[in-house]
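Final report, closing paragraph on structural work. Over the funding period we assembled a curated collection of sequence-structure pairs, and we close with a single example.
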Amino acid sequence: MTHITVTAVYATPDRQSQVTLSLSEGATLADAMTAMCALPECETWCIDAGALGVFGKIRPLQWALAEGDRVECYRPLETDPKTARRLRATVQKQTSQ
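Its predicted structure, as stored:
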């Protein structure tokens, strides 16, 4: 049976993690998620089936993976982007005066 190698990544505000997965050819994102959940180094990852992607694009669990793909596990945002921008603008305005 032929295998493919993919990289799975996960990031928190203070740490980035990466693991290499060896999967059967024709494996899907669901298969990658199962493989990640079985690894001890991934047990702290918050893996959400609806928040997995390949090379920056969210994909369904049925997405077929290819050799060298980068599986990304997205986590919920801590702050709404609009609120974060508003806060940064306020701080910049105060420091420039």
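The helical segments are 29-37, 81-96. The domain at 3-96 is CATH 3.10.20.30 (Ubiquitin-like (UB roll)). We thank the funder for supporting this effort.
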